[in-house]
Amino acid sequence: MTQLDEIRGYVAANTAKTEEIARKVWEYAELPFEETKSAELFKKELVAEGFEIEDNLAGIPTAFLAKWSNGSGKPVFGLLAEYDALWGLSQKASVPHKDPVAEGAPGHGCGHNLLGAGCFSAALAVRDYMKAHDMDGTVIFFGCPAEEGAGSKQFIAREGYFDDVDFCYTWHPSTYNEVGNTGSVAIMGANFIFDGIASHAGGAPHLGRSALDAAELMNIGVQYLREHMIDQARVHYAYSNSGGTAPNVVQDHTVIKYEVRAPKVSQMKELFERVVHIAHGAAEMTETKMRYEITMAFSDYIANAALAECISDCLLEAGAPKWSEADYELAREVLATYNETTQTAIRSTLAQKFDTADVDALLEKPLHGGVFPYERVKNPIYMSGSTDVGDVACATPTVMLNTATQCLGNVGHSWQNTCFSGSEIGMKGMMLAAEVMALACVRTAADPELIAKAKAELVARNGGRYVCPLPDDVEPPVGRY
Hints:
By secondary structure, this protein is of the alpha/beta class. It folds into two domains: 3-184 and 300-462, Aminopeptidase (3-Layer(aba) Sandwich), CATH 3.40.630.10; 186-297, Alpha-Beta Plaits (2-Layer Sandwich), CATH 3.30.70. It has 15 helices and twelve strands. The protein has helices spanning 3-13, 15-28, 36-48, 112-132, 153-158, 211-225, 265-286, 305-318, 325-335, 340-353, 359-364, 389-393, 415-421, 424-445, 448-462, and strands at residues 52-55, 64-70, 76-81, 137-143, 167-174, 183-184, 186-195, 234-241, 253-262, 289-298, 382-383, 398-404. It has a six-stranded mixed β-sheet with strand order 1-2-4-3-5-12. The chain has a four-stranded antiparallel β-sheet with strand order 8-9-7-10. It has a two-stranded parallel ribbon with strand order 6-11. The N and C termini lie far apart (50 Å).
């Protein structure tokens, strides 16, 4: 029996339980910082498996860790689980047309129900392997809420929970089976609050000072800023309080949320300050008052190359999920729901990833049936998304694995994604991720030279210590994000 065969046996023994957890969390579909049922489910199951729980990490009620140790307890390594859903993406599982479970309700449009359950399965498999081989070490399941909101991992990292962790692995549902060499950008978000003077918009408009005008002028200023920032940067906004719905009242209070992204934390902070200057200018122009509160910030993510090579080898050894004709049929039907513009973009993306001549055949069976090997690059390209996994990767050697849980070309944060995250396709990708993470954990834990190499790489990146991108006084915005 190979090491992979043994790990597969441990994962298979808990497949039914893992899939049940994934489906329950999918049904709960709880929003960031509200994942009470999901967190309690994981804790209950982990306690039953002999793990010790530490609750309320960094003052976040739905953040926790579950720990199991053997022998000396060294090395210490972690699995990063998530379980939050997204606003408005309710959708029935495996139904290839838009059909929400409840109109406007949340849904797992990023597959975090699979993510958390896959890490649960990997943690149990690692524990079983360590028991069977009397292997020293400590495996920690980190329950990390609110990745789709203000995040939690940066708050947990700031509290020092990763200081004594030797390495971490995690995964994410994807369209491909790979350990990517691209990065995720840093991000900072804040609420900008404008206060003015209310007045009758018809009878005494000259006496009012419009907070809504200030927010609108801020938006205009930021639009002009877009021409003068680096190509990889992004700025997003949304009103959380526009000042009411009565046009005949000069609005005296508005709140607008801004998020700023850039490849590096230093670039992100510089751009954020430029947005703050624009907000001050808008307040000056309208004779209103402006204040802002930072609610979230993530560091940029880059895979630790030493660990990436290890887990990529594990993925290559494990291979892709075994897809059925029913899986291909569902994938084809969901893919067909995208409009012509999106279909064209999907075809173009596939032509960049695969041979152009193969695209038509791939679209007939649009599920990834292979594995892309990890390729170390000197200067990684940054994609425009962000994740709080970046903060763990700045605190301890960390890698994120991707496995296919959805059709090729699928668009994230969509009802189509919610459909897949409750489907057999999603479950197959999840179980592969569990096998690969467990195998990588036991191989890394048994290789002190690999751990030392990974840590040296981290020191070269962070200078020997993690620096949280958040100001020290910013607390988790539980109940107010």
